[in-house]
Amino acid sequence: MITLKDAQIDCYYIVKKIKGEGPLKRRIMDMGITKNAEIFVRKVAPLGDPVQITVRGYELSLRKNDASCVEVELLEK
């Protein structure tokens, strides 16, 4: 299992687990990143922060710290 921080660009992933507790986990879930959500990794900034993704039809940028809390699995399309 890899985290969203380590995901490759131009690939689709399925969210398997959100690590963490309290406000951070709640904030990530409020953004639409929930278990079994499909995520497309669009870009990663040159220094690796932030990661730009598409989730539930909208664009979202996540800091590396937040992206490391989201465990994903590669989706074969």
TrEMBL record:
Coiled-coil segments on the chain, per record: none
InterPro entries tied to this protein: Fe-transptr_FeoA-like, FeoA, FeoA_core_dom, Transcriptional_repressor_C
Domain of life, source organism: Bacteria
Residue stretches making up the Ferrous iron transporter FeoA-like domain: 2-74
SMART domains: FeoA
Keyword entries, A-Z: Iron
Pfam families: FeoA
Protein name: Ferrous iron transport protein A
Record organism: Peptostreptococcus canis
